[in-house]
Amino acid sequence: MTGVPEPMSPDARRALEQELSTLRTERDTVAATLRGTDADSPGDLADQADELQRATEAARLDSRIAVIEARLAQAAVAAPPAPGVVGVGSTVMVRFADGSTTAVHLGEIADSTDSALVTADSPLGRALLGRVAGDPVSYRTPEGPKSAVVVSVGSPSGEA
Protein backbone atom coordinates (compact mmCIF):
# COMPACT_ATOMS: atom_id res chain seq x y z
CA MET A 1 0.00 0.00 0.00
CA THR A 2 1.56 3.31 1.01
CA GLY A 3 4.32 1.96 3.24
CA VAL A 4 2.64 3.27 6.40
CA PRO A 5 0.03 1.40 8.41
CA GLU A 6 -3.42 1.89 6.85
CA PRO A 7 -6.64 1.49 8.83
CA MET A 8 -9.20 -1.06 7.69
CA SER A 9 -12.95 -0.85 7.44
CA PRO A 10 -14.95 -3.07 9.81
CA ASP A 11 -16.36 -5.03 6.83
CA ALA A 12 -12.86 -5.66 5.47
CA ARG A 13 -11.66 -6.78 8.90
CA ARG A 14 -14.57 -9.23 9.25
CA ALA A 15 -13.96 -10.63 5.76
CA LEU A 16 -10.23 -11.12 6.41
CA GLU A 17 -10.88 -12.69 9.81
CA GLN A 18 -13.35 -15.11 8.19
CA GLU A 19 -10.84 -15.96 5.45
CA LEU A 20 -8.15 -16.47 8.08
CA SER A 21 -10.38 -18.85 10.05
CA THR A 22 -11.14 -20.86 6.90
CA LEU A 23 -7.46 -21.00 5.91
CA ARG A 24 -6.41 -22.17 9.37
CA THR A 25 -8.99 -24.97 9.23
CA GLU A 26 -7.73 -26.01 5.78
CA ARG A 27 -4.13 -25.84 7.05
CA ASP A 28 -4.95 -28.05 10.03
CA THR A 29 -6.57 -30.60 7.71
CA VAL A 30 -3.57 -30.65 5.38
CA ALA A 31 -1.12 -30.79 8.29
CA ALA A 32 -2.96 -33.81 9.74
CA THR A 33 -2.45 -35.70 6.50
CA LEU A 34 1.24 -34.82 6.50
CA ARG A 35 1.73 -36.07 10.05
CA GLY A 36 -0.24 -39.23 9.25
CA THR A 37 2.36 -40.66 6.88
CA ASP A 38 5.08 -43.06 7.96
CA ALA A 39 8.36 -41.36 7.05
CA ASP A 40 10.29 -44.64 7.34
CA SER A 41 8.25 -46.51 4.75
CA PRO A 42 9.61 -46.08 1.24
CA GLY A 43 6.18 -45.88 -0.46
CA ASP A 44 5.83 -45.62 -4.18
CA LEU A 45 6.32 -42.60 -6.42
CA ALA A 46 2.59 -41.80 -6.32
CA ASP A 47 2.71 -41.63 -2.51
CA GLN A 48 5.75 -39.36 -2.65
CA ALA A 49 4.10 -37.11 -5.25
CA ASP A 50 0.95 -36.89 -3.14
CA GLU A 51 3.02 -36.03 -0.06
CA LEU A 52 4.84 -33.32 -2.02
CA GLN A 53 1.54 -31.87 -3.25
CA ARG A 54 0.16 -31.73 0.31
CA ALA A 55 3.38 -30.07 1.54
CA THR A 56 3.13 -27.51 -1.28
CA GLU A 57 -0.51 -26.80 -0.38
CA ALA A 58 0.47 -26.39 3.30
CA ALA A 59 3.17 -23.88 2.31
CA ARG A 60 0.67 -21.94 0.15
CA LEU A 61 -1.80 -21.80 3.02
CA ASP A 62 0.95 -20.74 5.46
CA SER A 63 1.93 -17.92 3.12
CA ARG A 64 -1.61 -16.55 2.78
CA ILE A 65 -2.19 -16.87 6.53
CA ALA A 66 0.97 -14.84 7.19
CA VAL A 67 -0.15 -12.11 4.75
CA ILE A 68 -3.57 -11.82 6.38
CA GLU A 69 -2.15 -11.84 9.91
CA ALA A 70 0.32 -9.09 8.96
CA ARG A 71 -2.42 -6.97 7.38
CA LEU A 72 -4.69 -7.35 10.42
CA ALA A 73 -1.80 -6.43 12.74
CA GLN A 74 -0.93 -3.42 10.59
CA ALA A 75 -4.53 -2.19 10.64
CA ALA A 76 -4.69 -2.63 14.42
CA VAL A 77 -1.94 -0.05 14.98
CA ALA A 78 -2.99 2.38 12.26
CA ALA A 79 -4.87 5.50 13.16
CA PRO A 80 -7.79 6.49 10.98
CA PRO A 81 -7.19 9.46 8.66
CA ALA A 82 -7.95 12.94 9.92
CA PRO A 83 -11.42 14.25 9.05
CA GLY A 84 -11.49 15.43 5.43
CA VAL A 85 -8.37 13.45 4.47
CA VAL A 86 -8.67 10.46 2.13
CA GLY A 87 -7.85 7.15 3.78
CA VAL A 88 -8.95 3.55 3.66
CA GLY A 89 -12.70 3.53 4.20
CA SER A 90 -13.28 7.04 2.84
CA THR A 91 -15.89 7.78 0.22
CA VAL A 92 -14.44 10.24 -2.25
CA MET A 93 -16.19 12.29 -4.92
CA VAL A 94 -13.75 12.52 -7.83
CA ARG A 95 -13.99 14.67 -10.98
CA PHE A 96 -12.06 13.18 -13.87
CA ALA A 97 -10.40 15.08 -16.72
CA ASP A 98 -13.38 14.38 -19.02
CA GLY A 99 -15.65 16.27 -16.58
CA SER A 100 -17.43 13.20 -15.20
CA THR A 101 -17.86 12.98 -11.45
CA THR A 102 -17.99 9.69 -9.56
CA ALA A 103 -18.16 8.66 -5.93
CA VAL A 104 -15.63 5.95 -5.10
CA HIS A 105 -15.08 4.02 -1.92
CA LEU A 106 -11.42 3.54 -1.02
CA GLY A 107 -11.12 0.12 0.50
CA GLU A 108 -9.49 -3.26 0.77
CA ILE A 109 -9.90 -6.09 -1.67
CA ALA A 110 -11.97 -7.76 1.04
CA ASP A 111 -14.63 -5.09 0.36
CA SER A 112 -15.06 -6.50 -3.15
CA THR A 113 -18.89 -6.53 -2.90
CA ASP A 114 -18.77 -2.72 -3.07
CA SER A 115 -19.52 -1.69 -6.68
CA ALA A 116 -17.80 1.69 -6.17
CA LEU A 117 -14.65 0.10 -4.68
CA VAL A 118 -11.24 1.48 -5.55
CA THR A 119 -8.56 -0.48 -3.73
CA ALA A 120 -6.00 1.50 -1.78
CA ASP A 121 -3.17 -0.19 -3.67
CA SER A 122 -4.56 0.58 -7.15
CA PRO A 123 -3.07 3.49 -9.13
CA LEU A 124 -6.08 5.75 -8.40
CA GLY A 125 -6.26 4.57 -4.79
CA ARG A 126 -2.58 5.35 -4.16
CA ALA A 127 -3.03 8.77 -5.78
CA LEU A 128 -6.03 9.57 -3.56
CA LEU A 129 -4.55 8.51 -0.20
CA GLY A 130 -3.77 11.50 2.00
CA ARG A 131 -5.49 14.02 -0.30
CA VAL A 132 -8.14 16.58 0.64
CA ALA A 133 -10.96 18.26 -1.28
CA GLY A 134 -9.59 20.42 -4.09
CA ASP A 135 -6.36 18.44 -4.52
CA PRO A 136 -5.49 17.37 -8.05
CA VAL A 137 -4.24 13.79 -8.48
CA SER A 138 -2.30 12.12 -11.26
CA TYR A 139 -1.94 8.39 -11.75
CA ARG A 140 -0.90 5.88 -14.39
CA THR A 141 -3.17 3.33 -16.03
CA PRO A 142 -2.49 0.79 -18.78
CA GLU A 143 -3.99 3.36 -21.17
CA GLY A 144 -1.53 6.03 -19.99
CA PRO A 145 -1.44 8.88 -17.47
CA LYS A 146 -4.75 10.12 -16.03
CA SER A 147 -5.71 13.01 -13.80
CA ALA A 148 -8.60 13.92 -11.54
CA VAL A 149 -9.56 16.33 -8.78
CA VAL A 150 -10.84 15.40 -5.32
CA VAL A 151 -14.23 17.12 -5.03
CA SER A 152 -15.11 15.96 -1.52
CA VAL A 153 -14.05 13.45 1.10
CA GLY A 154 -16.53 11.54 3.21
CA SER A 155 -15.99 9.67 6.42
CA PRO A 156 -15.36 5.95 6.55
CA SER A 157 -19.10 5.55 7.18
CA GLY A 158 -19.56 6.61 3.57
CA GLU A 159 -20.85 10.16 3.92
CA ALA A 160 -19.32 12.36 1.22
UniProtKB/TrEMBL annotation:
<keyword id="KW-0648">Protein biosynthesis</keyword>
<dbReference type="InterPro" id="IPR036953">
    <property type="entry name" value="GreA/GreB_C_sf"/>
</dbReference>
<feature type="region of interest" description="Disordered">
    <location>
        <begin position="23"/>
        <end position="45"/>
    </location>
</feature>
<dbReference type="InterPro" id="IPR001437">
    <property type="entry name" value="Tscrpt_elong_fac_GreA/B_C"/>
</dbReference>
<dbReference type="InterPro" id="IPR023459">
    <property type="entry name" value="Tscrpt_elong_fac_GreA/B_fam"/>
</dbReference>
<dbReference type="InterPro" id="IPR036805">
    <property type="entry name" value="Tscrpt_elong_fac_GreA/B_N_sf"/>
</dbReference>
<dbReference type="GO" id="GO:0003746">
    <property type="term" value="F:translation elongation factor activity"/>
</dbReference>
<keyword id="KW-0804">Transcription</keyword>
<keyword id="KW-0805">Transcription regulation</keyword>
<feature type="domain" description="Transcription elongation factor GreA/GreB N-terminal">
    <location>
        <begin position="7"/>
        <end position="77"/>
    </location>
</feature>
<feature type="compositionally biased region" description="Low complexity">
    <location>
        <begin position="144"/>
        <end position="160"/>
    </location>
</feature>
<feature type="region of interest" description="Disordered">
    <location>
        <begin position="136"/>
        <end position="160"/>
    </location>
</feature>
<feature type="domain" description="Transcription elongation factor GreA/GreB C-terminal">
    <location>
        <begin position="84"/>
        <end position="153"/>
    </location>
</feature>
<dbReference type="Pfam" id="PF01272">
    <property type="entry name" value="GreA_GreB"/>
</dbReference>
<dbReference type="InterPro" id="IPR022691">
    <property type="entry name" value="Tscrpt_elong_fac_GreA/B_N"/>
</dbReference>
<keyword id="KW-0251">Elongation factor</keyword>
<protein>
    <submittedName>
        <fullName>GreA/GreB family elongation factor</fullName>
    </submittedName>
</protein>
<dbReference type="Pfam" id="PF03449">
    <property type="entry name" value="GreA_GreB_N"/>
</dbReference>
